[in-house]
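[User]
Protein folding is very new to me. Any chance you could explain this protein sequence and its structure tokens? I have pasted everything here:
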Amino acid sequence: KVQPHELAERLGSDVTRHVCPEWSRFLTLTSDVGSMGDTLFFYWIVMAWGEGGRGHVVDAGTCWSQDEFLEFFQTANFEHEDGGPYLRPVAVGLDAGAGMHANAICELCRPIPQFMPLKGSSQSGFPEWFRLIYQVQGMDPRIVRQKRKYGYGDLIEINTERTQVWRENVVQGVIGPEDPQRITIASELCHDRDFLDQILSDFKDDKGRWENRG
């Protein structure tokens, strides 16, 4: 029942797009991934993060090819509101999912240290926000043991239930403007109806099922 204009009023910030709030410590870049034939396209978002899990949507957009996305990452520098050095994303998460492009995303991430393939959990029966998945089929057990020892996972599995509940708590105002894990949105993005609709897309019904708001 939350309307886009209500969300904009509650989460909107005076900080303009492309600028990191003065409390920002680091940036992340994450992207949903679609494909048309062999061509990948990237629906990306840049988030600034601060103490206590505080977050801010700095920018969002779409790249219509892998080359365009890589070029965007290379030039992704964002002004800091405190006048200090610009910030760059320190981690890039790409949704590998279970689709036809999953292998392509894993191959894209492999040679770039900041890039990590992500996958939502179908069950989310674990307590953490995320966990590392290790490829074991066809792998030398000694290599798998070394990967586990040093935390070098092949995939990051996201606790979809926990992150969905967090997002919905932000949407509904359960997480308020002074609470940890609160989120604000760059002022210009508060006028982007498609962006707000995406944040509002799902809700949990009385039977505990996630449904689309339509």
